């Protein structure tokens, strides 16, 4: 896993030596510096509900989700029908998490998704 520094204010990537964000100008206090360090792994970045997500990231996650759904449909047709539920559940989880993070990019709560 790679250690990444992410600005808690605007969610942009930073180098580890920075004391302020290059994008929003947020100055890091000691507690902010601890918040800014995150472990970047595939599971957190695809299934995580915290943080923001731009259009490119949203479309990338949807493409991954639809690809996984397509592969599980093929496996379900060939081997066993139980795989279809796996594909649908993973697709729903990725889509909901990407939608919540996209709502965060618009400065809205993820619970707004429940009212749509």
What topology emerges from the helices and strands here?
Layout: E1 2-6, E2 13-14, H1 30-36, E3 37-40, H2 42-47, H3 55-78, H4 83-105
Antiparallel strand pairs: 1-2, 1-3
Keywords:
116 residues; mainly alpha; 2 domains; 3-stranded antiparallel sheet; 9% strand; elongated
What does the model show?
- By secondary structure, this protein is mostly helical.
- The protein has two domains: 1-40; 52-116, no CATH class.
- The chain is 52% helix and 9% strand.
- The protein contains four helices and three strands, in the order ββαβααα.
- It has helices spanning 30-36, 42-47, 55-78, 83-105, and strands at residues 2-6, 13-14, 37-40.
Overall average pLDDT: 76
Our Rg estimate from Cα atoms comes to: 17 Å
Distance between the termini: 36 Å
SS content category = mainly alpha
The strands making up the biggest β-sheet line up spatially as 2-1-3
| Model regions low in confidence, pLDDT < 50 over at least 5 residues | 32-42
Q: What is the strand content?
A: 5-15%
Task: Summarize the helix and strand pattern as letters.
Answer: EEHEHHH
The largest sheet is: 3 strands, antiparallel
Number of domains: 2
Individual helix count? 4
Helix content: 40-55%
**Overall form:** elongated
The tally of strands reads 3
In short:
The protein has 4 helices and 3 strands, in the order E-E-H-E-H-H-H. It is mostly helical and 116 residues long.
